[in-house]
Amino acid sequence: MIQDDRPRVAVLTRRFGVSFGGAERYAVEMVRELSSAFQIHVFAQEFDADSEGFVTIRVPLITQKPRWINQFWFALYTWWRCRSNFDIVHSHEMTWIGNVQTVHVVPFQIGVFGDLQPPMRWLKALGIILSPRLMMYWILEHFRLKRKDGRRLIAVSASLQSMLSRQCLQYLPKVDLIEPGVSVPAMDQGELANRLALGLPAEILLGLFIANDYKKKGFIKLLESLHQLPDMHLVAISNQNSIKEMAALATKAGLADRIHFRLQTKKLSNYYRTANLFLHPTLEDSYGMVVLEAMAHGLPVVVSGPKHCGIAADLSQAHHALILDDPNQAHQISKAALAIVNDQKLREHLIDTGLKFVASRSWARKASELSRIYEEVCGASPCVVSKDNSNPL
What we know:
globular; alpha/beta; Rossmann fold; seven-stranded parallel β-sheet; 14 helices; six-stranded parallel β-sheet
Protein backbone atom coordinates (compact mmCIF):
# COMPACT_ATOMS: atom_id res chain seq x y z
CA MET A 1 0.00 0.00 0.00
CA ILE A 2 1.34 3.43 -1.03
CA GLN A 3 1.77 5.82 1.89
CA ASP A 4 0.18 9.23 1.41
CA ASP A 5 2.40 11.86 3.02
CA ARG A 6 0.21 14.82 2.10
CA PRO A 7 -1.01 16.87 5.11
CA ARG A 8 -4.46 15.84 6.34
CA VAL A 9 -6.99 18.67 6.31
CA ALA A 10 -10.50 18.71 7.77
CA VAL A 11 -12.79 21.34 6.22
CA LEU A 12 -15.88 22.23 8.26
CA THR A 13 -18.96 23.77 6.62
CA ARG A 14 -22.58 22.89 7.34
CA ARG A 15 -23.51 23.02 3.66
CA PHE A 16 -21.08 22.08 0.91
CA GLY A 17 -22.21 23.09 -2.56
CA VAL A 18 -22.22 25.89 -5.09
CA SER A 19 -25.97 26.53 -4.97
CA PHE A 20 -26.18 27.23 -1.22
CA GLY A 21 -24.54 30.67 -1.29
CA GLY A 22 -21.28 32.58 -1.57
CA ALA A 23 -19.62 31.27 1.59
CA GLU A 24 -20.40 27.68 0.61
CA ARG A 25 -19.17 28.28 -2.94
CA TYR A 26 -15.92 29.66 -1.52
CA ALA A 27 -15.32 26.46 0.48
CA VAL A 28 -16.13 24.23 -2.51
CA GLU A 29 -13.76 25.99 -4.90
CA MET A 30 -10.90 26.05 -2.39
CA VAL A 31 -11.31 22.32 -1.71
CA ARG A 32 -11.34 21.52 -5.42
CA GLU A 33 -8.18 23.51 -6.05
CA LEU A 34 -6.24 22.10 -3.08
CA SER A 35 -7.38 18.46 -3.15
CA SER A 36 -4.33 17.32 -5.12
CA ALA A 37 -1.84 18.82 -2.64
CA PHE A 38 -3.66 17.90 0.59
CA GLN A 39 -5.70 14.99 1.93
CA ILE A 40 -8.96 16.84 2.40
CA HIS A 41 -11.93 15.56 4.41
CA VAL A 42 -15.07 17.70 4.18
CA PHE A 43 -17.46 17.60 7.14
CA ALA A 44 -20.95 18.88 6.23
CA GLN A 45 -24.62 18.21 6.79
CA GLU A 46 -25.69 18.87 3.21
CA PHE A 47 -23.84 18.24 -0.05
CA ASP A 48 -24.63 19.23 -3.62
CA ALA A 49 -21.12 19.14 -5.09
CA ASP A 50 -19.08 16.24 -6.45
CA SER A 51 -16.49 14.66 -4.16
CA GLU A 52 -13.81 13.68 -6.64
CA GLY A 53 -10.35 13.95 -5.09
CA PHE A 54 -11.42 14.32 -1.46
CA VAL A 55 -13.37 12.54 1.29
CA THR A 56 -16.83 13.61 2.46
CA ILE A 57 -18.19 12.94 5.96
CA ARG A 58 -21.86 13.67 6.57
CA VAL A 59 -22.55 15.24 9.96
CA PRO A 60 -25.92 14.01 11.31
CA LEU A 61 -28.68 16.60 11.19
CA ILE A 62 -30.64 16.10 14.40
CA THR A 63 -32.72 19.28 14.06
CA GLN A 64 -32.93 22.20 11.65
CA LYS A 65 -34.73 24.50 14.04
CA PRO A 66 -33.90 26.19 16.23
CA ARG A 67 -30.79 26.94 14.23
CA TRP A 68 -28.61 27.71 17.26
CA ILE A 69 -29.02 24.15 18.57
CA ASN A 70 -27.89 22.74 15.25
CA GLN A 71 -24.96 25.17 15.20
CA PHE A 72 -23.82 23.90 18.60
CA TRP A 73 -24.38 20.27 17.59
CA PHE A 74 -22.31 20.75 14.44
CA ALA A 75 -19.50 22.32 16.48
CA LEU A 76 -19.61 19.56 19.09
CA TYR A 77 -19.71 16.70 16.57
CA THR A 78 -16.88 18.05 14.42
CA TRP A 79 -14.77 18.77 17.50
CA TRP A 80 -15.14 15.13 18.55
CA ARG A 81 -14.31 13.79 15.08
CA CYS A 82 -11.47 16.23 14.37
CA ARG A 83 -9.77 16.48 17.76
CA SER A 84 -6.89 14.32 16.50
CA ASN A 85 -5.44 12.84 13.31
CA PHE A 86 -5.64 16.03 11.27
CA ASP A 87 -2.76 18.38 10.54
CA ILE A 88 -5.11 21.26 9.80
CA VAL A 89 -8.72 21.89 10.77
CA HIS A 90 -10.16 24.64 8.60
CA SER A 91 -13.52 25.93 9.78
CA HIS A 92 -15.96 28.09 7.83
CA GLU A 93 -18.42 27.87 10.72
CA MET A 94 -18.71 29.09 14.31
CA THR A 95 -16.74 26.23 15.86
CA TRP A 96 -14.04 26.34 18.51
CA ILE A 97 -11.89 23.72 16.83
CA GLY A 98 -9.83 24.95 13.90
CA ASN A 99 -6.31 26.26 13.52
CA VAL A 100 -7.53 28.03 10.36
CA GLN A 101 -10.76 30.04 10.62
CA THR A 102 -12.34 31.80 7.64
CA VAL A 103 -14.81 34.57 8.52
CA HIS A 104 -17.41 35.21 5.81
CA VAL A 105 -19.79 37.61 7.56
CA VAL A 106 -19.65 40.45 10.05
CA PRO A 107 -18.89 38.84 13.44
CA PHE A 108 -21.83 38.49 15.77
CA GLN A 109 -20.56 40.81 18.48
CA ILE A 110 -19.68 43.57 16.02
CA GLY A 111 -23.13 43.34 14.47
CA VAL A 112 -24.82 43.47 17.87
CA PHE A 113 -22.70 46.07 19.68
CA GLY A 114 -21.30 48.17 16.85
CA ASP A 115 -19.98 51.41 18.35
CA LEU A 116 -22.38 51.40 21.30
CA GLN A 117 -21.07 52.86 24.55
CA PRO A 118 -22.22 52.19 28.14
CA PRO A 119 -24.96 52.03 29.31
CA MET A 120 -26.51 50.94 25.96
CA ARG A 121 -23.73 48.38 25.54
CA TRP A 122 -24.58 46.87 28.95
CA LEU A 123 -28.27 46.68 28.05
CA LYS A 124 -27.39 44.85 24.82
CA ALA A 125 -25.21 42.42 26.78
CA LEU A 126 -28.07 41.78 29.20
CA GLY A 127 -30.38 41.03 26.28
CA ILE A 128 -27.87 38.49 24.98
CA ILE A 129 -27.53 36.80 28.36
CA LEU A 130 -31.30 36.41 28.59
CA SER A 131 -31.54 34.82 25.13
CA PRO A 132 -30.26 31.21 24.78
CA ARG A 133 -29.94 31.71 21.01
CA LEU A 134 -27.87 34.88 21.18
CA MET A 135 -25.83 33.56 24.10
CA MET A 136 -24.89 30.45 22.12
CA TYR A 137 -23.72 32.50 19.14
CA TRP A 138 -21.71 34.77 21.44
CA ILE A 139 -19.99 31.85 23.17
CA LEU A 140 -19.23 29.99 19.94
CA GLU A 141 -17.77 33.08 18.33
CA HIS A 142 -15.69 33.90 21.41
CA PHE A 143 -13.95 30.52 21.36
CA ARG A 144 -13.70 30.50 17.59
CA LEU A 145 -11.72 33.72 17.57
CA LYS A 146 -9.81 33.16 20.79
CA ARG A 147 -6.05 33.59 20.61
CA LYS A 148 -4.28 30.26 20.17
CA ASP A 149 -0.78 29.27 19.13
CA GLY A 150 -0.71 28.60 15.41
CA ARG A 151 -4.28 29.73 14.73
CA ARG A 152 -4.86 31.84 11.62
CA LEU A 153 -7.85 34.04 10.95
CA ILE A 154 -8.88 34.78 7.35
CA ALA A 155 -11.29 37.48 6.18
CA VAL A 156 -12.91 37.27 2.76
CA SER A 157 -12.98 41.03 2.08
CA ALA A 158 -10.80 44.03 2.84
CA SER A 159 -13.63 45.75 4.71
CA LEU A 160 -14.15 42.68 6.90
CA GLN A 161 -10.41 42.41 7.50
CA SER A 162 -10.28 46.06 8.56
CA MET A 163 -13.29 45.63 10.83
CA LEU A 164 -11.80 42.59 12.56
CA SER A 165 -8.38 44.21 12.98
CA ARG A 166 -9.76 47.51 14.25
CA GLN A 167 -12.59 46.49 16.55
CA CYS A 168 -11.70 43.09 17.95
CA LEU A 169 -8.57 43.52 20.00
CA GLN A 170 -8.90 40.08 21.60
CA TYR A 171 -8.59 38.46 18.17
CA LEU A 172 -5.32 37.39 16.64
CA PRO A 173 -2.95 40.30 15.95
CA LYS A 174 -2.90 39.50 12.22
CA VAL A 175 -5.94 38.91 10.05
CA ASP A 176 -5.16 37.42 6.64
CA LEU A 177 -7.11 38.43 3.56
CA ILE A 178 -8.14 35.93 0.90
CA GLU A 179 -10.95 37.28 -1.24
CA PRO A 180 -13.11 34.99 -3.38
CA GLY A 181 -11.92 34.00 -6.81
CA VAL A 182 -13.70 33.32 -10.06
CA SER A 183 -13.73 30.74 -12.83
CA VAL A 184 -13.48 32.52 -16.16
CA PRO A 185 -15.84 30.87 -18.67
CA ALA A 186 -14.20 28.90 -21.44
CA MET A 187 -16.62 29.98 -24.15
CA ASP A 188 -16.71 33.34 -25.93
CA GLN A 189 -17.60 36.10 -23.45
CA GLY A 190 -20.03 37.73 -25.88
CA GLU A 191 -21.98 34.59 -26.73
CA LEU A 192 -25.55 34.48 -25.46
CA ALA A 193 -27.14 31.20 -24.47
CA ASN A 194 -30.45 30.35 -26.08
CA ARG A 195 -33.04 32.23 -24.02
CA LEU A 196 -35.86 30.15 -25.37
CA ALA A 197 -34.18 26.99 -24.03
CA LEU A 198 -34.34 28.62 -20.59
CA GLY A 199 -37.96 29.62 -21.01
CA LEU A 200 -37.16 33.32 -21.41
CA PRO A 201 -38.41 35.82 -24.02
CA ALA A 202 -35.83 36.25 -26.76
CA GLU A 203 -36.16 39.92 -27.77
CA ILE A 204 -36.13 41.84 -24.51
CA LEU A 205 -33.80 43.89 -22.35
CA LEU A 206 -32.92 41.52 -19.52
CA GLY A 207 -31.46 42.25 -16.08
CA LEU A 208 -30.19 39.53 -13.75
CA PHE A 209 -30.52 39.29 -9.96
CA ILE A 210 -29.15 36.36 -7.88
CA ALA A 211 -29.66 35.98 -4.12
CA ASN A 212 -30.79 33.47 -1.53
CA ASP A 213 -31.63 36.16 1.02
CA TYR A 214 -33.56 38.47 -1.30
CA LYS A 215 -34.33 41.07 1.39
CA LYS A 216 -30.67 41.61 2.31
CA LYS A 217 -29.66 41.66 -1.35
CA GLY A 218 -32.01 44.51 -2.19
CA PHE A 219 -34.82 42.88 -4.19
CA ILE A 220 -37.55 45.07 -2.72
CA LYS A 221 -35.98 48.33 -3.93
CA LEU A 222 -34.98 46.67 -7.20
CA LEU A 223 -38.62 45.75 -7.69
CA GLU A 224 -39.60 49.36 -7.10
CA SER A 225 -37.01 50.56 -9.61
CA LEU A 226 -38.56 48.44 -12.37
CA HIS A 227 -41.48 50.87 -12.53
CA GLN A 228 -38.94 53.37 -13.91
CA LEU A 229 -37.52 50.78 -16.35
CA PRO A 230 -40.58 49.89 -18.45
CA ASP A 231 -38.61 48.13 -21.19
CA MET A 232 -36.68 45.82 -18.84
CA HIS A 233 -37.48 42.31 -17.70
CA LEU A 234 -35.68 40.67 -14.77
CA VAL A 235 -34.48 37.14 -14.13
CA ALA A 236 -34.47 36.57 -10.36
CA ILE A 237 -32.68 33.43 -9.14
CA SER A 238 -33.17 32.26 -5.57
CA ASN A 239 -34.25 29.34 -3.40
CA GLN A 240 -37.78 27.97 -3.42
CA ASN A 241 -39.04 29.68 -0.26
CA SER A 242 -37.69 33.05 -1.30
CA ILE A 243 -39.16 32.75 -4.79
CA LYS A 244 -42.65 32.28 -3.33
CA GLU A 245 -42.30 35.47 -1.30
CA MET A 246 -40.70 37.40 -4.16
CA ALA A 247 -43.42 36.32 -6.59
CA ALA A 248 -46.09 37.55 -4.19
CA LEU A 249 -44.35 40.94 -3.98
CA ALA A 250 -44.05 41.12 -7.78
CA THR A 251 -47.75 40.36 -8.21
CA LYS A 252 -48.70 43.01 -5.65
CA ALA A 253 -46.53 45.53 -7.50
CA GLY A 254 -48.13 44.64 -10.86
CA LEU A 255 -44.82 43.37 -12.26
CA ALA A 256 -45.38 39.61 -12.33
CA ASP A 257 -45.30 39.47 -16.15
CA ARG A 258 -41.85 41.11 -16.26
CA ILE A 259 -40.03 39.02 -13.65
CA HIS A 260 -38.91 35.48 -14.43
CA PHE A 261 -38.14 33.47 -11.32
CA ARG A 262 -35.72 30.54 -11.45
CA LEU A 263 -34.39 28.17 -8.79
CA GLN A 264 -30.74 28.25 -7.78
CA THR A 265 -28.71 25.97 -10.03
CA LYS A 266 -25.15 24.80 -10.54
CA LYS A 267 -25.39 26.09 -14.12
CA LEU A 268 -25.65 29.80 -13.46
CA SER A 269 -23.40 30.49 -16.45
CA ASN A 270 -26.35 30.01 -18.78
CA TYR A 271 -28.22 32.81 -17.04
CA TYR A 272 -25.24 35.14 -16.90
CA ARG A 273 -24.94 34.74 -20.67
CA THR A 274 -28.60 35.52 -21.33
CA ALA A 275 -28.57 38.84 -19.46
CA ASN A 276 -27.74 42.35 -20.64
CA LEU A 277 -26.69 43.64 -17.23
CA PHE A 278 -26.29 42.47 -13.62
CA LEU A 279 -28.04 44.20 -10.72
CA HIS A 280 -26.78 43.80 -7.14
CA PRO A 281 -28.29 46.54 -4.95
CA THR A 282 -27.40 44.62 -1.80
CA LEU A 283 -27.93 46.04 1.66
CA GLU A 284 -25.42 43.69 3.29
CA ASP A 285 -22.74 41.60 1.59
CA SER A 286 -19.29 40.85 3.01
CA TYR A 287 -17.89 40.53 -0.51
CA GLY A 288 -20.33 39.85 -3.36
CA MET A 289 -19.01 36.87 -5.30
CA VAL A 290 -21.85 37.05 -7.81
CA VAL A 291 -20.54 40.46 -8.95
CA LEU A 292 -17.18 38.87 -9.73
CA GLU A 293 -18.88 36.07 -11.67
CA ALA A 294 -21.03 38.53 -13.63
CA MET A 295 -17.92 40.46 -14.68
CA ALA A 296 -16.25 37.20 -15.74
CA HIS A 297 -19.19 36.56 -18.07
CA GLY A 298 -18.86 39.97 -19.68
CA LEU A 299 -21.77 41.70 -17.95
CA PRO A 300 -21.83 45.38 -16.97
CA VAL A 301 -22.68 45.66 -13.29
CA VAL A 302 -24.70 47.89 -10.96
CA VAL A 303 -23.58 47.28 -7.35
CA SER A 304 -23.95 48.84 -3.91
CA GLY A 305 -21.07 50.85 -2.49
CA PRO A 306 -18.42 49.71 0.03
CA LYS A 307 -20.66 50.44 3.01
CA HIS A 308 -22.97 47.67 1.85
CA CYS A 309 -20.85 45.42 -0.38
CA GLY A 310 -17.23 44.40 0.18
CA ILE A 311 -16.17 44.05 -3.46
CA ALA A 312 -17.09 47.68 -4.14
CA ALA A 313 -14.01 48.76 -2.16
CA ASP A 314 -11.92 47.31 -5.00
CA LEU A 315 -13.98 48.93 -7.76
CA SER A 316 -13.91 52.43 -9.29
CA GLN A 317 -17.09 54.29 -10.15
CA ALA A 318 -17.94 54.24 -13.88
CA HIS A 319 -14.71 52.35 -14.54
CA HIS A 320 -15.33 48.81 -13.25
CA ALA A 321 -19.03 49.21 -12.42
CA LEU A 322 -21.74 51.73 -11.60
CA ILE A 323 -21.73 52.00 -7.81
CA LEU A 324 -24.79 52.97 -5.77
CA ASP A 325 -24.32 55.46 -2.94
CA ASP A 326 -27.57 54.30 -1.35
CA PRO A 327 -29.23 51.05 -2.53
CA ASN A 328 -32.31 52.03 -0.51
CA GLN A 329 -33.07 54.63 -3.18
CA ALA A 330 -34.88 52.94 -6.08
CA HIS A 331 -34.26 55.89 -8.40
CA GLN A 332 -30.49 55.37 -8.05
CA ILE A 333 -30.88 51.77 -9.24
CA SER A 334 -33.01 52.74 -12.25
CA LYS A 335 -30.73 55.66 -13.14
CA ALA A 336 -27.65 53.41 -13.17
CA ALA A 337 -29.41 50.71 -15.20
CA LEU A 338 -30.59 53.28 -17.78
CA ALA A 339 -27.06 54.71 -18.06
CA ILE A 340 -25.74 51.27 -19.03
CA VAL A 341 -28.60 50.62 -21.45
CA ASN A 342 -28.45 54.00 -23.20
CA ASP A 343 -24.69 54.58 -23.35
CA GLN A 344 -22.96 52.03 -25.57
CA LYS A 345 -19.47 53.39 -24.88
CA LEU A 346 -20.01 53.15 -21.13
CA ARG A 347 -21.40 49.64 -21.47
CA GLU A 348 -18.45 48.46 -23.54
CA HIS A 349 -15.99 50.13 -21.15
CA LEU A 350 -17.54 48.42 -18.11
CA ILE A 351 -17.43 45.05 -19.85
CA ASP A 352 -13.78 45.49 -20.85
CA THR A 353 -12.55 46.71 -17.47
CA GLY A 354 -14.63 44.07 -15.69
CA LEU A 355 -12.93 41.30 -17.65
CA LYS A 356 -9.52 42.78 -16.85
CA PHE A 357 -10.47 43.03 -13.18
CA VAL A 358 -11.28 39.32 -12.87
CA ALA A 359 -8.29 38.17 -14.92
CA SER A 360 -5.99 38.15 -11.87
CA ARG A 361 -8.57 36.71 -9.49
CA SER A 362 -8.76 33.04 -10.42
CA TRP A 363 -9.65 30.41 -7.83
CA ALA A 364 -6.26 28.80 -8.50
CA ARG A 365 -4.48 31.98 -7.41
CA LYS A 366 -6.64 32.37 -4.32
CA ALA A 367 -6.09 28.71 -3.41
CA SER A 368 -2.32 29.20 -3.64
CA GLU A 369 -2.65 31.93 -0.99
CA LEU A 370 -4.55 29.53 1.26
CA SER A 371 -1.99 26.80 0.58
CA ARG A 372 0.77 29.06 1.92
CA ILE A 373 -1.21 29.56 5.12
CA TYR A 374 -1.68 25.80 5.45
CA GLU A 375 2.06 25.29 5.05
CA GLU A 376 2.85 27.98 7.61
CA VAL A 377 0.41 26.44 10.10
CA CYS A 378 2.01 23.04 9.71
CA GLY A 379 5.48 24.53 10.01
CA ALA A 380 4.65 26.56 13.12
CA SER A 381 3.19 23.77 15.26
CA PRO A 382 3.22 19.98 15.63
CA CYS A 383 1.52 18.55 12.58
CA VAL A 384 -1.24 16.55 14.26
CA VAL A 385 -3.92 18.43 16.19
CA SER A 386 -3.90 17.12 19.73
CA LYS A 387 -6.89 16.61 22.01
CA ASP A 388 -5.51 19.13 24.50
CA ASN A 389 -5.03 21.83 21.87
CA SER A 390 -8.57 21.29 20.62
CA ASN A 391 -10.20 21.94 23.97
CA PRO A 392 -12.05 25.27 23.79
CA LEU A 393 -11.40 25.94 27.46
